[in-house]
Amino acid sequence: MNGLPAANSPDVDVAVVGSGVVGLTLAALLARSALRVTLIESQRLPPAEVPTDYDLRVFAVSRASAQILLACGAWTYVEGSRHGCFRRMEVWDQHSNGRIRFDSAAIAEPTLGYIVEQSVLRMALERVLGQRANVTWYRPAALQAWSREADRLHIALVDGRRFGTRLLVGADGADSRVRQLAGIGYERHDYEQEAVVCNVRTELTHAETARQRFLGTGPLAFLPLDDMHMCSIVWSTIPAQARNLVAVDEQGFRGELTTAFEHTLGRVVAAGPRASFPLSKGRAQCYVQSRIALVGDAAHTIHPLAGQGANIGLLDAATLAQLVIEAADAGVDTGSLRLLRRYERWRKGENLLMQSAMDGFKYLFGSEQRSLQRLRGLGLNLTDRAAPIKNLIMRRAMGLDGDLPRFARSTA
């Protein structure tokens, strides 16, 4: 049910605050069970159709994430809408001769992943949730406070509406209201970089290949969209250059982009609207309290250089959904701290490892020390020639290996 429920709405099993991609996915997975799920969202009902123009925000969806979306029923709608895929990936360095190439065919897989616009994912997930009788919405609404009883939280919204829930999940982003009200500490580190995003048309086709060049000020990525001449670009750089890239006219921007990417796809012949946002990493001191859990950016944020932010958030959602559904089926309290700590142990170590890896890459490829520049070039070239290592990296990045929740594992 979309819209505004009655003020005396009955209690629910799980309340999810925030309806970004991670929150919607969690709700869609939970809704496949008998659990009663409600979402609290500050925005009004979004458009029912995908906009004609490409979104500025796109996600590099791993194979594991696609499997999660398939499990909740959303991937069918994504496949029927606008999306790109990448079968190959190339990474190279401005300050060395290092280059590495990945190809899904090397491990007998059809793709490495997909490039999907935020609006496409939101539309797909909204359609799934609209078909579930056990899903309700508070929209637009904002969380004000809660009080505790032994077996539930009593939720108060800003507009005065109230209801009870056994579990409250914060999927409300890096500035999470749930995290703040719970008094959970949060460590934030500013990378002193900004990401410039834009959709561009190139002279040559992208050939379903994701490409990234490491520049001295940060990485520049070209991500293939469904049109073979269209890419979404993410250019991470120092704030002063980011401001210039957003402010310069289109012709000037296209010229700078073409040069920075070494004419790899020929000239950039058209560029859409541009935007930039600051880059930082953050991590919550803990992911859970009794009857409280954090997922996605509410629990952690990372540098976008490998496009893994949404993927680890979706793994959070799939892991929590699995544990909550299993507990409900077994008659176990779905908001108990003992259960929620299983989720935290499962995901926190994996997420910290990913954050550390991204920090390591940023330091290694951002260093101006000649010795490190030579070392990273040598490392890229050696890894490129070591097929077993390359294949292991591919499988891990795709989500084909690792300690995955069942919703992320292929049943084929």
Question: Which SSEs are present, and which pair or pack?
Answer:
Layout: E1 12-17, H1 21-30, E2 37-40, E3 58-62, H2 63-71, H3 75-79, E4 84-86, E5 88-93, E6 99-103, E7 113-117, H4 118-130, E8 135-138, E9 143-148, E10 153-157, E11 162-170, H5 177-182, E12 186-202, E13 209-215, E14 218-224, E15 230-237, H6 239-247, H7 250-260, E16 268-271, E17 275-284, E18 288-289, E19 292-294, E20 300-301, H8 309-329, H9 337-366, H10 370-385, H11 387-398
Parallel strand pairs: 1-2, 1-11, 2-8, 5-13, 11-19
Antiparallel strand pairs: 3-7, 4-7, 5-6, 9-10, 10-11, 12-15, 12-16, 12-17, 13-14, 14-15, 17-20, 18-19
Helix pairs in contact: 1-4, 1-8, 8-9
Question: Could you explain the architecture of this structure?
Answer:
The protein has 11 helices and 20 strands. The chain is an alpha+beta fold and 412 residues long. It has a domain at 12-86 and 116-188 and 281-368: FAD/NAD(P)-binding domain (3-Layer(bba) Sandwich), CATH 3.50.50.60. The strands form 3 sheets. Strands 5, 6, 12, 13, 14, 15, 16, 17 and 20 form a 9-stranded mixed sheet that branches. Strands 1, 2, 8, 9, 10, 11, 18 and 19 form an 8-stranded mixed sheet that branches. The protein is globular, with a radius of gyration of 22 Å.
Question: What's the rounded overall pLDDT mean?
Answer: 91
Structural class: alpha+beta
Terminal Cα span: 33 Å
* Total strand segments: 20
Name the CATH architecture of the domain at 12-86 and 116-188 and 281-368: 3-Layer(bba) Sandwich
Strand content is: 25-35%
Instruction: Please work out how many helical segments DSSP would assign.
Output: 11
Uncertain regions: pLDDT < 50 for 5+ in a row? 1-9
- Anisotropy-based shape: globular
Query: Tell me about the biggest sheet?
Result: 9 strands, mixed
